[in-house]
Amino acid sequence: MAIIQWFPGHMAKALRQVKENLKAVDVVLELVDARLPESSRNPQLEELLQDKLSIIVLTKMDLADPKATKEWIEYYESMGQPAVAVNSNAGNLKIIEKKIKEVLQDKLEARKQKGILNTKMRAMCIGIPNVGKSTLLNRLVKKNVAQTGNKPGVTKSQQWLKAGKELQLLDTPGILWPKFEDPLVGKKLALTGAIKDTLYNKDDVALYAIEHFVHHNKEALKERYRLSEEQVDDTSVEVLLSITKNMGFKDDYDRASERLIFEIRKSKLGRYTLDDVPKDPTEV
Ligand SMILES: Nc1nc2c(ncn2[C@@H]2O[C@H](COP(=O)(O)OP(=O)(O)O)[C@@H](O)[C@H]2O)c(=O)[nH]1
Ligand SMILES: [Mg+2]
Predict the structure, then answer these.
(1) What positions does the entry give for GTP binding (predicted)?
(2) 230 CA distance to ligand 1 centroid (A)?
(3) For residue 210, what pLDDT is reported?
């Protein structure tokens, strides 16, 4: 696996910007991809958010395994970390405002007691590129104000966007870079399209994907690529060779890997979650 590293200077700058913006908000919406909730978090954030109320928003729940998403929400909530899951392209986002209200209840009450009349709730979205910050922001303010796409936007002067009567959102989402010393995290990010296609070896990512599906959804792999039980039970490398052949790509494993990755991103092998909820050590 090629070493995937972000230029540390970029990361430090992004963190600094997020830190600066944090002061202006009551609560942080930390967006993570429901297919890889832990791997799509920036671990440096924990320190930054220490004294800040935050809600983990699992985006793209329509692509993730529903059972795993439920487990992740329960896991975070059991740790005292509020969490919700959404599909920002469709479905109801009321759950977010409801959660914000719940989290800020005491704070808003205290403000009222002090006679502060402005009890608007101020929030900001943060998360790694492609996690769905702009899409969510647009939905929440019901207008196309934030540019969606794969490139981080240019920071203009900051504005507050109205999202309903009581909620205000900072217009510029905080962009964080994923940090991964662990190559497995890199492969997961690559497979779901969170990092640039030029930053990893396609066959490494494809082999990881094959391993995941053999363990979690063998039937989908067998069906889509017309593999026999015997073929799918072989080593991951052999499975990739069989898939390449069945795709009609002869021995062009690179091309087959690319196609496999693309199809998994498009959910052609169904919904999936790559991160498992940590096991309770007391249960082992
Ligand atoms: N299926 C699905 N796709 C989403 C969701 N949220 C965002 N996306 C897609 O993910 C891609 C990146 O979204 P964007 O909002 O630009 O991410 P940003 O870089 O964090 O601002 C776009 O193609 C979106 O359409 C979601 O909840 N479900
Ligand atoms: Mg964006």
Answers:
(1) 87-88, 130-135, 174
(2) 38
(3) 98
Residue 153 pLDDT grade (very low, low, confident, very high; cuts 50, 70, 90): very low
Q: Which H or E run includes 236?
A: helix 236-246
Of 274, 83, 40, give the one whose Cα is nearest residue 177: 40
**Are the beta carbons of 30 and 57 closer than 8 angstroms?**
yes
Per-residue pLDDT, 213: 98
* Domains of the chain from N-terminus onward: 14-175 (3.40.50.300), 183-265 (1.10.1580.10)
Mean pLDDT of 76-85: 96
- At residue 54, the 3 state secondary structure works out as strand
Atom of ligand 1 at shortest range from CA of 146: 21
Ligand lying closest to the C-alpha of residue 132: 1
More reliable by pLDDT, 58 or 7: 58
pLDDT of residue 119: 77
Q: Is the CB of residue 102 less than 8 Å from the CB of residue 82?
A: yes
Give the ligand whose atoms come closest to the C-alpha of residue 87: 1
**Cα(37)–Cα(39) distance, integer angstroms:** 6
The Å distance, Cα 228 to ligand 1 centre, comes to: 35
Which residue is closest in CA terms to ligand 1's atom 26? Answer: 60
pLDDT above 70 covers a percentage of the chain that reads 90
Angle at 120 between CA 119 and CA 124, to 5 degrees: 140
